[in-house]
Design goal:
61% helix, disordered C terminus, elongated, 20 helices, 475 residues, mainly alpha
């Protein structure tokens, strides 16, 4: 016991390492499986990179504890096995500090988007290193003063400053969370943040106890073995728990693998519960479809918009039509519901407006900057200028070719079939006489030679039961 307590290799040490390896495998699966199972696109933005950085920080934290507290029996012959590499740099700035900074970065974004109602003034790739700088400064100071002994233990006088830095970052996370506690989030972001705070605070409490026992009572062998076992196992479980609480991707949280029956949402509108989002209603208002009609008016019709979108996608130019549909969905959200409007607006900005977005639309730099620097993400006319520009582009480019395409021919054919079916349904509703006649031919008063109905090529603008030409056949 005394030998393995100093040099590592106890049975409990290998058990703890096995538990940590299992937790890390589960951690990686939590990151990868939603994209593999649900075929989610990997948007190379903060919503994707912050969870990846969290996994990287979790791995560093667990591995640094294994290397610095002598869980494995090996001789330290190389510089990269030094205590200052693992116990100072990897464990603090690149481990717990980076893990908690990612969570603070998420809370910072939520605060600006939903409380300030504007995009954060500092991008995540700038904010994250900025908030991590105190950890880097502290690690550099410890590396210069070199207070560690050969067992990677610091003296008792370093415990309070070290834990104070940990506690300060938890307090910052609490402050941001309290600032957004009044927001009625749709995807449980506030609950996830509070759970993250609880996990972080609990981990600090456990680490303080194990750390004190490991640092101060280094002459008691069984206590050294037991304390480092608890420290590694607890750390492995807690980093898995804190990553499982993700508030960075609303749509991803809706199809989380935690749910037994995940629901598939094809659009943000469906996730936000907008009426008829992504669905074709049985009977839409009748409209006239033709080259002389305004395109922005035609696109308000769901069936025409889907036909025009299919044509645009076939030309590899469907971004503008998809943008029109998402903005149309945004218009369904009442002005007095700013939270849902902000969700939808942020989704549209990330998907279509930001440079390098997955479906970046072709709008002027001035319009793009006006959207990105808006002071109110919930304002009703946020995307009006962008819609005007894109509608003009679609009218000049796509619309001319659409009217002579097979997509329009198919749309007219389907419209004619729906119109005919609607007429037959109206005829079945009329009050026919139940009497039967044995008279044949033109002498039969109930027999009429009916002319075929003439069906317009587009959507009819009036009901056939109001057409006097048709009604006269049954008078």
């Amino acid at each position: 016991m005394a030998s393995c307590a100093v040099h590592g290799g106890c049975v409990s040490d290998y058990i703890a390492v096995t538990v940590s390896a299992i937790c890390f495998i589960l951690l990686v699966s939590r990151l990868i499986l939603p994209f593999v199972v649900h075929k989610l696109p990997c948007a190379k933005r903060s919503g994707f990179w912050i969870p990846v950085i969290q996994v990287f920080a979790s791995f560093n934290l667990v591995l640094s504890i294994v290397m610095s507290l002598n869980f494995l029996k090996f001789e330290k012959r190389h510089w990269w096995q030094s205590c200052y590499v693992w116990a100072v740099w990897i464990e603090a700035p690149l481990g717990f500090g980076l893990l908690l900074s990612c969570r603070i970065s998420q809370a910072f974004q939520l605060y600006y988007i939903f409380v300030k109602r504007c995009l954060p003034p500092i991008r995540s790739y700038v904010f994250l290193p900025l908030i991590l700088s105190p950890w880097i400064t502290g690690a550099a100071f410890i590396h210069i003063t070199k207070p560690l002994n050969y067992r990677c233990h610091m003296g008792a006088q370093w415990i309070i400053p070290s834990m104070s830095l940990h506690t300060t970052y938890v307090a910052i996370l609490v402050a941001f969370t309290c600032a957004i506690r009044h927001i009625e989030f749709r995807f449980d972001e506030l609950r996830d943040l509070w759970q993250g705070i609880l996990v972080s605070a609990s981990s600090i409490g456990v680490w303080v106890v194990a750390y004190v026992l490991n640092e101060i009572h280094d002459d008691i062998s069984w206590l050294q073995v037991a304390s480092r076992f608890v420290l590694l196992v607890t750390t492995s479980i807690l980093v898995l728990a804190i990553f499982s609480i993700s508030s960075s991707q609303p749509l991803l949280s809706q199809i989380s693998l935690r749910k037994r029956e995940p629901r598939a949402y094809e659009s943000m509108g469906q996730a936000l519960g907008l009426p008829d989002s992504g669905l074709l209603v049985q009977r839409e208002p009748a409209c006239v479809v033709g080259p002389n009609e305004p395109l922005d008016k035609l696109l308000l019709n769901k069936r025409f918009r889907q036909s025009f979108m299919a044509f645009a996608d076939s030309c590899l130019a469907g971004e503008s039509v998809h943008f029109f549909e998402e903005v149309h969905e945004l218009g369904k959200i009442p002005v007095d519901d700013p939270v849902r409007r902000i969700y939808m607006a942020r989704h549209i900005i990330d998907k279509y407006i930001i440079a390098g977005a997955a479906m970046e639309v072709n709008i002027s730099h001035r319009t793009r900057q006006e959207i990105l620097t808006t002071s109110n993400l919930a304002q009703p006319n946020l995307f009006n200028d962008a819609l005007t520009e894109l509608t003009h582009l679609m009218k000049m480019n796509l619309a001319r070719d659409y009217w002579s395409s097979m997509f329009f021919m198919k749309f007219k054919e389907e419209a004619s079939m729906r119109s005919g079916a609607h007429e037959l349904e109206q005829m079945r509703g009329w009050n026919y006489s139940p009497r039967l006649s044995s008279v044949r031919g033109t002498d039969d008063p109930f027999h009429q030679e009916q002319e075929p109905f003439s069906v317009d090529s587009g959507c009819n603008t009036r009901d056939h039961d109001d057409d006097p030409r048709i009604m006269s056949k049954f008078v």
